[in-house]
Design goal:
Its cofactor is [4Fe-4S] cluster. There is one protein chain. The protein is an all-alpha fold and about 290 residues long. A two-stranded antiparallel sheet has the order 1-2. It contains 15 helices and two strands. The chain is globular. Among the domains are: about 100 residues, Endonuclease III, domain 1, CATH 1.10.340; about 55 residues, Arc Repressor Mutant, subunit A (Orthogonal Bundle), CATH 1.10.10. A hairpin with a 5-residue loop joins strand 1 and strand 2. The structure holds a DNA duplex (11 and 11 nucleotides).
Length: about 290
DNA sequence: TAGACGTGGTT
DNA sequence: TAACCAAGTCT
């Protein structure tokens, strides 16, 4: 049967030659190990995830092991990975898996999607990488590669469109190759077809790339908004949570007051952390990670 | 649907 | 150096 996707073979050949060796890609990686890696990798570089993932796997090799802990321990051992509600999500995943799914990470996309913190991308990634399912795995890397190679544009739209999804579906190879195709396109986007500087000289599909063939026209869409961080509630939340992570018991409010000057913003941020379940207030007015 | 949500490395 | 960017999800 002829393959409809001309990118398939060159990308698979490149992946076999150039893929990074990552522990969650080893043949003995469990679905749990893969789920943990996927949540940690959301908006977070591999280099920062590696040590935390390794420590989590040593400490909590199964969902049941994590489920037996208070959620605050997940937050504590999240360290400085960022977006700490992901730690809470992973803890809730562990409890859902042990309570609802017999201790095994579910294999089908719909059930995965029901887990906290697992969205369209992560469900497809786990179903594909852990269970060899056939899914369009659309992350920022894949979207960028397809935008360039097929659509001829430097960057994909800000939010995933139905057209992008349809394109990704149309490129999906047979069940045998779908999982490796998914990880290989992601890897190509991560290592070669990067956001800042596409390394077309190293790209296995440069000869087929619509963007390169068009002379690499620059992005014309609306300016992509800067994130901004200094002085934001996010920065304030980060400071406050760092105090709670570093302490192994309840923290007096004064210790929190000390890390952020603006009292109005500080109270708002602290209330937000409590509302999000990342912190608890005790009767005596002290704070701690959630039990 | 746009904006919130952390953190640190790179250009 | 400030801006950009990193395997997204949720509301």
């Amino acid at each position: 049967m002829p393959e409809r996707n001309p990118l398939l073979n060159p990308v698979l050949e490149w992946y076999a030659r150039c893929a990074r060796e990552l522990p969650w890609r080893e043949p003995d990686a469990t679905p749990w190990a893969i789920l943990v890696s996927e949540i940690m990798l959301q908006q977070t570089p591999v280099a920062r995830v590696l040590p935390v993932w390794t420590e989590w796997m040593r400490r909590w090799p199964t969902p049941a092991a994590l489920a037996a802990e208070p959620p605050g321990e997940a937050v504590r051992h999240w360290g400085r990975l960022g977006y700490p509600r992901r730690a809470l999500n992973l803890h809730a995943c562990a409890r859902a898996v042990t309570d609802l799914h017999g201790g095994e990470v579910p294999s089908d996309h719909a059930t995965l999607l029901s887990l906290p913190g697992v969205g369209e991308y992560t469900a497809a990634a786990v179903a594909s990488f852990a269970f060899r399912g056939r899914h369009a795995v659309l992350d920022t890397n894949v979207r960028r590669v397809l935008a360039r190679a097929v659509r001829g544009e430097e960057y994909p739209p800000k939010a995933t469109t139905a057209a992008e999804r349809a394109l990704a579906e149309s490129l999906l190879p047979g069940p045998e190759d779908a999982p490796v195709w998914a990880v290989a396109v992601m890897e190509l986007g991560a290592l070669v077809c990067t956001a800042r500087a596409a390394r077309c000289a190293d790209c296995p599909i440069s000869g087929l790339c619509a963007w390169r063939l068009a002379g690499k026209p620059p992005y014309e869409g609306p300016a992509r908004r800067g994130q901004g961080y200094a002085g934001t509630d996010r920065q304030c939340r980060g400071r406050l949570l760092a105090v709670l992570r570093g302490a192994h018991g309840p923290v007096p409010k004064a210790a929190l007051d000390a890390v952020w000057d603006d009292a109005v913003q500080r109270e708002r941020a602290l209330d937000g952390l409590v509302a999000d379940g990342l912190a608890e207030v005790l009767d005596d007015g002290t704070y701690r990670l959630p039990l």
